[in-house]
Hints:
five-stranded antiparallel β-sheet; elongated; 225 residues; alpha+beta; three-stranded antiparallel β-sheet
Amino acid sequence: MRISDPMQTYRCPQCQNEIPLTDVNVASDLALCRKCGKTTPFSLVSGVSELDLAQLDEPMKGVTVTQAMIGGTEIVYRRFSKSVFFLIPFVAVWGGFSLGGIYGRQFSSGHFDPTMSLFGLPFLIGTLVMIVAILFMIRGRWRIRLDGGRGEVFAAVGPIGWTRRFAYGRDSVVSLELSKTQRNDRIQKVISVKTGNSGIQFGTPIQDDAKRYIAALIAKECAAS
């Protein structure tokens, strides 16, 4: 890990005191706040520093913020990804050749081969996963609802999706953290909300500028709770 911008201001996630670079040990991923005496992973401090509440004064493409009818603030992210122009032909060729060669021959010959069928399962699962990813890039949406310390994340394609709930408050730490997912040989970040010993991470497919904007919105809501 390295500090990409030596002029960046880093602040303690606990007390918001500025942490000078002399109190940062990048090699061991630690940052010391001399005001509150707490040591925090530098990756977390860096992720918090990426958030800029001033950017909330400008609208973000693909993100809408409204007051939910059932109460609280609702953030909806929906943005078409140009990656589908690469993924669609890739899946068509990759899935067509692999699945056609493994399963197509069995159907045409009328002979079932258990060994070849098991060999083809990773290709089948991979193709299905990429098809779901394409559908999400075209028709998917994220909805984050914040209401009095109770948060809810709903990710879906149409009405089908998953829901996760989390708690938040003034002591919550909102940041962008590195995930285990890579895209174009680049590790993707996730929105992280940690409250005490519990927390939630979400939003890997969301574009980086929108991640920072949504995380800043959540941080603002946490500060106001």
